[in-house]
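Lab notebook, page 48
Experiment: co-folding of the full assembly
Goal: obtain a model of how the components sit together before planning crosslinking
Operator: M.T.
Materials (sequences as entered):
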Amino acid sequence: MQKIAVLGSGSWGTALAIHLVRNKHDVTLWGRNAEQIELMKKQHMNAHFLPGIPLPDALHLSDQLLDTVKEADTILVAVPSHAFKELLEKIKPVWNSQKKIIWASKGLDPDSGDFLHNVADNILGNNAKTAVLSGPSFAKEVAQGLPAALTVATKENDEETALFFQELFHSDKFRIYISHDLVGVAICGSAKNILAIASGIAEGLSLGSNARAALITRGVAEITRLTDKLGGKRETLMGLAGLGDLILTCTGVQSRNYRFGVALGQGLSIADSLKSIDQVVEGINTSILIQQLAHQYNVEMPIVEQIVAVLNHTKTPGAAMVELLSRRPTHE
Amino acid sequence: MQKIAVLGSGSWGTALAIHLVRNKHDVTLWGRNAEQIELMKKQHMNAHFLPGIPLPDALHLSDQLLDTVKEADTILVAVPSHAFKELLEKIKPVWNSQKKIIWASKGLDPDSGDFLHNVADNILGNNAKTAVLSGPSFAKEVAQGLPAALTVATKENDEETALFFQELFHSDKFRIYISHDLVGVAICGSAKNILAIASGIAEGLSLGSNARAALITRGVAEITRLTDKLGGKRETLMGLAGLGDLILTCTGVQSRNYRFGVALGQGLSIADSLKSIDQVVEGINTSILIQQLAHQYNVEMPIVEQIVAVLNHTKTPGAAMVELLSRRPTHE
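Observation: model returned without errors.
Model output:
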């Protein structure tokens, strides 16, 4: 049994906290919003993010960040990528290198455009025992105890931390595969949200399943080019954190980025589309950051370019799709 | 303008014939069932396979196989894989090496377990100008003129035939990418139907989107192992004929193999599940043929094994899924 602090009481943090309680760990779920935490205590539920799913009695809830971290052996970060850096800086004074840390956040740091594993190294030092959890995982299904398979990635030489987290999360319904490709996992986790927006736009424009499948496939090709350039591994792209998450995010109505795209495709403005989701849409910030990476490393990423243009109001969703779906192809 | 014979008046043959007429070719669609052809002439529609979609006036319909082939410059075969060999043997007497031939059939020859390109070579000779059309393509959407992107694959040294067919099919809405990996395309086109059945079973059992995405991803891993062993290319797996078609077939309710799996997962018998589809379910024969290949080449393919066990009545769909989703994982 581990004493675990889950930081971030959105849908994914809450679902993972529930799962870890089921795995017989001692779990405290922290949320920054004291009122929300109070409400969750009263209702025994995260009514806003996971309505209808009761919280286990053994799950502790807290709005006290430093106390929660101080008392834990293991830290699971589940805040949006834009809040990642600030959170690590806040907890650093009470953190020590004995406390293993894993994050389920996907995206890049908006200030620096850095990968989250670089942000973590910069703040916590290179010797921190860190890992990332990624893969196809709608929070609600995990909270409901439905089967899922995910990837835990650590640094190349850190099999020990990988095995620790595999054991921590593993159950009959929750399979953990190990990877050491932090770069590949980070790129996939970020870029998939952009593709999900594109895929949603195609759906919103009623372009059909063939177009959507083609778009996702061409998206994988452009993510592959970026991964190659940045030293990630193609195996990661073909795995759970790559393909698996991509399939889920780009075809499932549970995905916020996908639904945001659908709203855009149906003709809603960006503001109204966002309002209709009412949660963080990671792909919006990410698209600009990935575009910067693509330019910096001279990688052709037409889908990313078109999505940025749509989000910058320089192109309509319809015009972007025509551009993407009528490019004259050559060899794959 | 080419004079084209489309052989096979199922949904895909009919949709491709409609598309080729739109591309201003002179197209005759042949079907073996004289009554069906007569009805299509009367109704200006393929009411059984593509209800509600009118056939273009310029499309010729025929139940005379040899006449149709004799008069054509180009032949497109769109019969199920189990009928492929017999059809080629029938048309051979009126075929000559000037008549280019492409097939949209997916699967393996049921008698020999051979790839269709080997069957074609055996019957027509190595010098025949042959190609295969593959990729994510629900027939109805193509018939409706919605966008799609597909792969045309030919032999390694036959760029000429590849370019010919790219030109033949290409339009603003229908993009053709060229490949020369016949083996990879054949494996993907066959194996995806088995994965679609598995994916449908997971859906029918209400295991959720996470489980389905994990299953598809692990399926890609086992198809990759087979492709590697048989000399296919990983690029093909990552492309339209691989990933693209897989995403479409494993997530779309328009896929027969997927719907067959859903019916099985919901508890229907194999016979009743088949009845509910009322079209050829390629994955049934294919699963046994791919299993044979896997055994012959010593490739581990757990999903294929479980689907064969379900179709052999030696395992329930539920037990098969438990086996697949609770295997103790290691590295991806």
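Interpretation: Chain A touches chain B through 56 residues (CB under 8 Å).
Next step: discuss with group before ordering constructs.
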